[in-house]
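Aim 2, interim progress. The first record below pairs a target sequence with its structure tokens.
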Amino acid sequence: MKKTKTELIDAFIIEPNVISDSRGWFVETYSAQKFSDLGIGPVFVQDNHSMSKTSGVLRGLHFQLDPAAQTKIVRCTKGKILDVIVDLRKGSPTYKKWLKIELSEDNFKQLYIPQGFAHGFLTLVDDVEIQYKVDCLYSKDHDRSIRFDDPEIGVDWGITNPILSKKDLDAPLLKDSDCNFIYKGDMK
């Protein structure tokens, strides 16, 4: 398993070892011991699985407020997505900066998203499934989102008319949200 830093502080890419032969492949996507050896410390308490039927579905940008903020590890198990994260921690050197990465069933990459980040993804093909681990249970009272097209953030999604939920259509701009994340220093 390999951990690669990104340009956003505390966010990184995890690339598991893939063992393949003429029959197919095997991959270990999570190991508490291997994650600990890589310096990945949270205990994950919930797994989520999401399916989108068509290309052009955009889900995000989502997060949970403190004290129910979530660390996530996201992977695409069917199809292909453009995964996007935004650092929302006031005081962070990468505050309001964003990162996008393609995750697919073929590249096996996983994105580690620390607490204090918003997360969203765009489906690039039909019939997409993603799975992700979180270190804090879902809390409806802390569930929030911001506009995917917030001009203050400026994510380049590569699409002008995505398929959105009512929640994402009605999401506020960051400046109008009650986002309460504060940067506490590099977690390494």
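The second target in this work package is listed in the same format:
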Amino acid sequence: MRDRDIREALHRKVLKEHHGDTNTLVLNELGLRHGACRVDIAVVNGHLHGYEIKSDADTLDRLPTQVTAYGAVLDRASLVVGEKYAEKAKALLPDWWGIRVATVGPRGAINFDTVQPIKTNPSIDPVALAELLWRPETVEILRELGTPELMLRKPRAVLYRHLAEVVELKELRDLVRKTLKARVRWRGQRPPLSDAGL
């Protein structure tokens, strides 16, 4: 059971209803902190939910770093893990992460069992969240908020900090999700249904 097998089964079984929802974006490989870390699968609707996949062929070496990066940005996070690492991984995760264990059934189908229910992230970093936006998107949002043009020419890091300061976190979360869903051109694009096995 490889990462790819688990990913395809997730799209086909767990995320099937999201693929059919026009108000939901399902994306493979969402970059966080300007690509320093990537979410295996991101679901963007009323929440920003990331899925991290660890098959039995993987290691958990990067998981603590990923937990920190995910925790700065995502409303919800789920680890999808093979049986080999299920217990060890649980000790590395905050209690708001959900955990699903992937197993192979007698006919070769991959099944998912929830062993830790998902909760909402209690501590999102507004600046890290703002960094999901591209610079032109950030400029447009700030311009609509009445930000002076001189400020809009500042480096993107300054713009992200400013946006995080002038917009309440709840509104910022809504703005980021809305912008991601409206984005036409993605590095990875929305996965076609054929790629998801649907």
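The chain has nine helices and six strands. This observation will shape the mutagenesis plan for the next reporting period.
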